[in-house]
Amino acid sequence: MENRIEKIKKQLHSQSYKLTPQREATVRVLLEHEEDHLSAEDIYLLVKEKSPEIGLATVYRTLELLSELKVVDKINFGDGVSRYDLRKEGAEHFHHHLVCVECGSVKEIEDDLLGDVEKIVESQWEFKVKDHRLTFHGICNKCQNRENE
Amino acid sequence: MENRIEKIKKQLHSQSYKLTPQREATVRVLLEHEEDHLSAEDIYLLVKEKSPEIGLATVYRTLELLSELKVVDKINFGDGVSRYDLRKEGAEHFHHHLVCVECGSVKEIEDDLLGDVEKIVESQWEFKVKDHRLTFHGICNKCQNRENE
DNA sequence: TATAAAACACAAATTAATATCATTACAATT
DNA sequence: AATTGTAATGATATTAATTTGTGTTTTATA
Q1: Which parts of the sequence bind Fe cation (chains A, B) (predicted)?
Q2: What distances in angstroms separate CA A135 from CA A84, A86, B87, B125, B129, one per listed residue?
């Protein structure tokens, strides 16, 4: 935990940004809810619990900054709000998501499944791939079992 | 063209919706701009050219309806607006997009590149895939050439 | 043609996100 | 230590996209 904060601090410093208390509080919330795909509003409320004086705009600005630095990925499942995911350490790419259309749960996949597909895209369409985002919509493990009962 | 409108009409009727003049005008705009990834506002302005009395809310409701019926796909490239793409005839899946980070152009790919990947997801995570959305971010053909000059 | 349901236009409300701006924190410099 | 300049902050207003009322009109069908 402290370790990862240290790293993010260095990443900020390398671009001459500072890890202010507000930014640190925001990062801590992200670290404590890594699996949760929180919206900016969610994050704001959680940060506020420990640092009640923080403003919503600051949270937005922090998330925007972290997004530029590729510390977090800003994702959009089409429900009107942006969500923010910490990028896993060392991960070069955006991770993928499995969104269950029954229960709404979101599972993450770290594996890079698209190596071959990217090669096809690069050769066939002469498109230099920098990043990708892939989401599957379907029915999760649990909901499948529930239906079979 | 008329053919495809006929089909959409039947699809609406099958769920006991009507293809009203306003809805038809909206569908025509979509058909005439199939490659363009229009926003609701864009579509509204185009429909208005031929049917000036239409309301924006009607366009939104129409797009929402078409989206439910899987006639169009509602997509979001993270720029704050939803865009609406006609689903290709017979296409079971969402098509993919190549978004150029230089010039903002968007190219579509019809090919189903994810057959193998879906199999992996289904077996390894026991997730029944219904649909997917895949977007690549990178540098398009034209911008690559421009940079090399 | 009568009738009820559906769809409509327009206005108003909601919501996420951004912009503005006065204030504050902080580091570098004198 | 005082000064100065820059960046960050918080409160609030504003914007922009979308959704939701409301009363009216259209449409299908009996």
Answers
A1: 132
A2: 15, 17, 18, 14, 10
Cβ pair A73, A132 in contact under 8 A: no
Q: What is the pLDDT of residue B94?
A: 81
- Closest by CA to B55, choosing from B83, B23, B28, is B23
- Smallest CA–CA distance, residue A61 to chain B, in Å, is 16
Say yes or no: B52 and B105 in one domain.
no
Q: Does A70 touch chain B (CB under 8 A)?
A: no
Confidence of residue A61 (pLDDT cuts 50, 70, 90): very high
Count of structural domains within chain A: 2
Do A99 and A71 fall within a single domain?
A: no
E strand or H helix at A97 = strand A96-100
For residue B120, give its domain range: 93-149
Say which DSSP state A71 is in. S
- Which 18-57 residues of chain A touch chain B by CB within 8 A? none
